[in-house]
Amino acid sequence: MSATTLTAAAPSVRASSQGSPVVTVRALQVAYDTELVLDRVDLDLHPGEMVALLGASGSGKSTLMKSLTGFAPITSGTADVAGRDATSASGRELRRLRADVGQVFQQFNLIPRLSVFSNVLTGALHRAGPLNVIGGFTSEHRRLAMHYLDRVGIAHKAKEPARSLSGGQQQRVAIARALMQQPRVILADEPVASLDPKLATSVLELLHDIAKGDGIPVLVSLHVLPLALAHSDRIIGLRHGEILLTAPTAQLDSEKLSVLYEFEEVDDDDHLA
Ligand SMILES: Nc1ncnc2c1ncn2[C@@H]1O[C@H](COP(=O)(O)OP(=O)(O)OP(=O)(O)O)[C@@H](O)[C@H]1O
Ligand SMILES: [Mg+2]
């Protein structure tokens, strides 16, 4: 399979993003046992940009995100995340790398019985480590947690148990928790797949605003093309583990993106061979 790059360079995005890339991936290859699930993947994430990652189920979106935090079996290539090598980091270096990466998931992954405020505070554990907060979170931690709750628009819910919030509100808590890490990059794997269209839009607007306002690059995987087209600066499309297209969002539309979801006929002879 040959990767087709619709638009190799992205001048408008580069002009609007500042500084050198926070994430640089080159010729990345990931394999589970003998199954190659990512191949020849190149990726740059610049401060200030929101990049949508698209592709059919099984195309490798989650695996690409996992490879940036040392959770995927990388077989070759390079992956630099905020100055750390994700292909070889272990121990303390890997913990530091993971502290630099804020993650947002489809199912929010909050602790339901804990208050919204406490859930956000747990974001500080990534950087401090549990042993360093054994005497409790500092007043600075608490100030920051309220600051980020305010940032995502739900400071008024701080004392409520996380389980009492709507899905959209819970995802805001998860985003505040990610910000509490003071991350260098945010990876959001299908963050709106469990939300209705209105909440999905508001959560993506928030993530885009964080990318722009806070300068933190956001990589977000999505399955809904109109949402990707409305809320990203650039789109990267994966098919069968390879990057099939990468282009500024302004140059794309649903029709151009449909190539990501077209499948070749499987030749029975090849398949059985
Ligand atoms: N832990 C694992 N062990 C073996 N194979 C895996 C593992 N995780 C993922 N894969 C395989 O890697 C490929 C890519 O999976 P991945 O979860 O990255 O896809 P995806 O694009 O995120 O799909 P979806 O849109 O359904 O979330 C699939 O073929 C999947 O079966
Ligand atoms: Mg996935």
From TrEMBL:
One Pfam match? ABC_tran
In this chain the ABC transporter domain maps to 23-265
The family database entries (SUPFAM superfamilies) matched by this protein are listed as: P-loop containing nucleoside triphosphate hydrolases
Q: Where are the transmembrane segments?
A: none
> What is the top-level taxon of the source organism?
Bacteria
Query: Keyword set for this entry?
Result: ATP-binding, Cell membrane, Membrane, Nucleotide-binding, Translocase, Transport
Quote the SMART domains the UniProt record gives: AAA
Q: Which GO terms describe its molecular function?
A: ATP binding
PANTHER family found in the cross-reference section: AMINO ACID IMPORT ATP-BINDING PROTEIN (PTHR43166), PHOSPHONATES IMPORT ATP-BINDING PROTEIN PHNC (PTHR43166:SF6)
Q: What name is this protein filed under?
A: ATP-binding cassette domain-containing protein
Source lineage: Bacteria, Bacillati, Actinomycetota, Actinomycetes, Mycobacteriales
